[in-house]
Amino acid sequence: MKRYGPYRNQDGYWFWIDIAADGRRRTVLVSREVLAQRLGRPLLRSEDAHHIDEDRDNNAPNNLEVRDRIAHRRAHGIASFRRNMIAYDLNLEKGVAASVKARALRKRRASQRATQRARYRAENRQTFPPQEPSNAAPVRNP
Fold first, then answer.
1. Per-domain residue ranges of the chain
2. Which run of H or E residues covers position 3?
3. With a threshold of 0.70, does the pTM exceed it?
4. What is the number of other CB atoms lying within 10 angstroms of the CB of residue 59?
5. Residues 67, 69, 71, 74, CA torsion sign
6. Could you give the CA distance from residue 58 to residue 119 in angstroms, rounded to a whole number?
7. Is 79 a residue whose pLDDT tops 50?
C-alpha cells in the first residue's frame, strides 16, 4: 500500500490518500488515524476524533479524544448542525423537484419534435403522378 500526503481538505483537516495494491483509493483523516493508533483499534463510523483545543492542525495524541458523532456535533453547536441539515433537506427537495421538472420538459420537447416530424412528413409527402393509361388495348382472354 502506498500512502500520499498529508494534504489539507477544504475544512482544514489533514488527510492521507492510501492506494492499495489493486488500485483502490482510500482517504484517511490524520486525526482519526492517530487516535486509532493510540486506542489500538479502528474508530467506529459512529465515532469522531475531537480536537480538545479545537485546533485542527494539532493532531497530537494527547489532544484527541473519542466522541460519539451526534454528541460531537452538538458540542460544536446544534444550531449550525440543524441549519445544515435543513439546508441539505431543502437542497435535496429542490434537486428532486428540478429533476422532475427536467424530466417533464424532456418529455414535452420529445412530443413537440415528434409532432414537428409528422407535420413535416405530411407537408412534404411526395405525390407520384397517377399512371397514365397505356395506348395499348387491354388484353382479353377468350
1. 2-76, 77-122
2. strand 2-8
3. no
4. 20
5. positive
6. 71
7. no
